[in-house]
């Protein structure tokens, strides 16, 4: 499956770069050739030389699935992906489900999508994500809790140009039973002793 995923991603990268170049964008192909692992849309955005805007803005204008320039990427079914993760000894977590459904204006699909993933064997959901609203956190917390699933929080940081995200060194964790002041006291005591 990993070989197929790498092949799909490489083909997607070539198609996206061709589309961008047909619109006058200049791509630093050498940068893309030195990426370790699978090239992502973020990598493509960083490789555009003459964009004159942040990677974040470029991504959403030209590369996001909601962009009029979007190019479809081959994807694997959830059940197949979850099975492969488990066979490799991993834990399958679904990241930012509500943000994705909200982005596509499909919040009405939450029960169906979450239920399908649960039936496919997902181990948990990302409950805390960037600047998630308290409503999103409570919703995902309750779904995870009701189904005995793991509850995780995103810790990735994509650089200072990524607006709308929690900045490096900061956190936006709130939600059911979470005490921010207690966390700060713990960190001060454990990490920065007197």
TrEMBL record:
Query: Which Gene3D superfamilies does the record match to this protein?
Result: Metal-dependent hydrolases
The record's listing under InterPro entries reads: Pol/histidinol_Pase-like (IPR016195)
Name used for this protein in its record? PHP domain-containing protein
**Which source organism?**
Methanolobus chelungpuianus
